[in-house]
Amino acid sequence: MSEQEELRHNLDLAEEWAGTFKTLGDPTRLKLLSAIHYAGRFAYTVSELAEATGVRIPTASAALRAMEVNGTVISQRDGRSIYYGIHNEHVHELLHWIGTGHQH
C-alpha cells in the first residue's frame, strides 16, 4: 500500500470511529453502556438502568433513544417493559478495552 493509500485508510478509519467516540465521550451514555455491558444483553429496563447509574429516568430514556437511533444499543420489548443491549460491536470492544467487565 502506498503512503497516500495508508493515509486515506487512516482518515477513513477516523471517520468510521468518530461517532463511536462521540457517544462514549458523554458521561451519561458511557455510564449507561457500562451498566448494560456489565449486566448483559437485555437485562435492564430504562428505570433499572437509571437506578443503577444514578441518572434520572427521563435523562436515561433520552440517551438510550439517541443511542438506539445511532445503532449503539438495541431494545427488546417484553410486555410493557423494554430491555436494552449493546448493538455496536466497536462499542463492546472499547468497553472491554477500558476495563469494564461482565457480571457473569
UniProtKB/TrEMBL annotation:
CDD domains: HTH_ARSR. This is HTH arsR-type domain-containing protein. PANTHER family: ARSENICAL RESISTANCE OPERON REPRESSOR ARSR-RELATED, HTH-TYPE TRANSCRIPTIONAL REPRESSOR CZRA. Residues 9-104 form the HTH arsR-type domain. Coiled coil: none annotated. SMART domains: HTH_ARSR (SM00418). InterPro entries: ArsR-like_HTH (IPR011991), HTH_ArsR_DNA-bd_dom (IPR001845), Metal_resp_trans_reg (IPR051011), WH-like_DNA-bd_sf (IPR036388), WH_DNA-bd_sf (IPR036390). Keywords: DNA-binding, Transcription, Transcription regulation.
